[in-house]
Amino acid sequence: MYNLLIVDDETNVTDMLAELFIREMAADEVNIYKAYSAKAAMNVLEQVKVDIVLSDIRMPGMTGLELLDRIKANWPQSKVAFLTGYREFEYVYSAIQHSGVRYLLKTSDDQQIVGTVREMVKEISDSRNMADVLLEAKSLQEIAWPTLQSEWLQDFITGHDSRTTDLQRHFNELKIPLNAARHAWLVIGRFDISPDAWQREGREQSRFAVQAIADKFFSAEFSYFGCLVDRVNMAWIVQSKAESASSDPLAMRRAFALFNGNLEFIQESVKATMGITLSLAVSGEHFELSEIAEQYRLLNQIMRNHFGLVTEFFLSNKAIPLVSQIASSRMASVSTGKFKSLEDFLFNGRRDAFLSLFEELFAEAGSISTWDDPIILEKYYRVATMFLAYTNTMEIRDAVIASVDLRLLLVTEEHPSWREAVAYLRGVGVELFNQHEMRGERLTEDVVMKLKSYVNDHLDLDLSLTKLASLFFLNPSYLSRLFKQEAGMNLSDYITDKRIELAKTLLKKSSKKMSEIGVQIGYESQQSFTRFFKNAVGVSPQEYKETIQES
């Protein structure tokens, strides 16, 4: 989905263009943002990633060309089309010096305007499928520095090397472009595919390809560095280059909005270029680098809670209340080798891989007749304690107890034989996966239910995707996908339906003026309300009211 920003100081022009694209382009093609001034456009540009801008070239306070410079500074990959009634050569000449900029007259027909935006959408889509990035990725593997940098950064992020006194010296020695004195954000990325699904060489190349894509799309306003943390996780430490970002809340919010938009570009380009999806977890607030190990633990918990339930998710540690409730004490490491893999399969929601390895580990259970066999005892209790840790961490113990008697988990002698004991243990594992999946469904249902309730109660307010996403601490694109997945319809269509439903009710049963009804469903201008209603219903509000009165 692409974000389209329409800018014109003539409100009727802006509204008509917005309604044109609502009518002509599918709701899952573009999110539409409106701005009635260049200043309002700047506010949008600092809050969301903007792919396409359709703007008047002459506006009070700031010309379209001045706005263009700001657009390219924030979102250099964006496309711009100027729509104007002016033919002055210097304006046109200046505009076309920028790549990705078009020029249209306001007298252009609807199809030409829509066609131009569709062309820009295609260009953006094509640019994200960058085959040359894969070649760049291969060359990165031949360089020694990334290995040295990643090894040290892995220990730093995970807390194995918590020394921060000489942090800047480490950065300088390893050529890591970060500032130890500045606040940072942390991002964890993980492919939505089993690491065993392709050969090691291809897996490593894919990871380097993600790094190359990040190099291309991260804004020049950021310093950042990424590494491979473990077999499945990639991580980036990101800092704003603006010195004020650490102390000025407004500067920090602006930097965070740009940062989020950059991550969306990376996520979309990975999918377009490599044919696989990437899930991301990001720190919702910046932090001192001395806190990075705790930030990594929280983000890794988000990954574990959601991985396998949905793909291509984009969440922050402010989005899930569960994260703030998780005890800060660290769990002891279960094991390496097969038991570590078993734990990873459990926490990442990979049921089939878990059960397959479980069967392999306990294949001998049926042939053991003594209860004090040390090998199977060790295996059994490692898995049993893993299950207990999982129920505590995921906060599903009560739900599991309702289906399985956990008292038997640590009392092997209560089972008739090792065969039955292992069958019971396997059944507990299956129930854990069942509860995890149901919990994921409940979380999604809860978000969508609360979102619907908010929309229903605030039809007179700003219900833009950006506004709603900020209320729920979710990325706008992710919120849109989540709603459609759960509700079976686009969020914009739901909002339209509810506004039309309320408008019809008021037209039938109240004596309010048309302008008052418009305001009550979120339209300050009666003209905008009339166009919105007619586009949706086929007749104007006045015609609809007269028809009701006649019948």
Short structural description:
By secondary structure, the protein is α/β, with parallel strands linked by helices. It contains 23 helices and ten strands.
SSE topology:
Layout lengths: L1 E6 L3 H14 L5 E6 L2 H8 L6 E4 L8 H11 L4 E6 L4 H8 L4 E5 L4 H19 L2 H10 L4 H14 L8 H7 L11 E7 L8 H18 L4 E7 L5 E7 L8 H26 L3 E5 L9 H15 L7 E3 L4 H5 L11 H11 L3 H11 L12 H20 L3 H5 L16 H40 L7 H7 L4 H12 L3 H19 L4 H7 L5 H12 L3 H10 L1
Parallel strand pairs: 1-2, 1-3, 3-4, 4-5, 9-10
Antiparallel strand pairs: 6-8, 6-9, 7-8
Helix pairs in contact: 1-22, 2-3, 5-10, 6-9, 9-10, 13-14, 13-15, 15-17, 17-19, 18-19, 20-23, 21-22
Verbal overview:
The chain has 551 residues and is of the alpha/beta class. It folds into 4 domains: 2-128, Response regulator (Rossmann fold, 3-Layer(aba) Sandwich), CATH 3.40.50.2300; 131-323, Alpha-Beta Plaits (2-Layer Sandwich), CATH 3.30.70; 337-436; 458-550, Arc Repressor Mutant, subunit A. Helices cover 56% and strands 10% of the residues. It has 23 helices and 10 strands. It has helices at 11-24, 38-45, 64-74, 89-96, 110-128, 131-140, 145-158, 167-173, 200-217, 249-274, 292-306, 321-325, 337-347, 351-361, 374-393, 397-401, 418-457, 465-471, 476-487, 491-509, 514-520, 526-537, 541-550, and strands at 2-7, 30-35, 52-55, 79-84, 101-105, 185-191, 222-228, 234-240, 278-282, 314-316. It has a 5-stranded parallel sheet with strand order 2-1-3-4-5, with helices on both faces. The chain has a 5-stranded mixed sheet with strand order 7-8-6-9-10, sandwiched between helices. Helix 6 (131-140) packs across helix 9. The longest helix has 40 residues, at 418-457. It is globular, with a radius of gyration of 27 Å. The two termini are 43 Å apart. Residues 320-336 have low confidence and may be disordered.
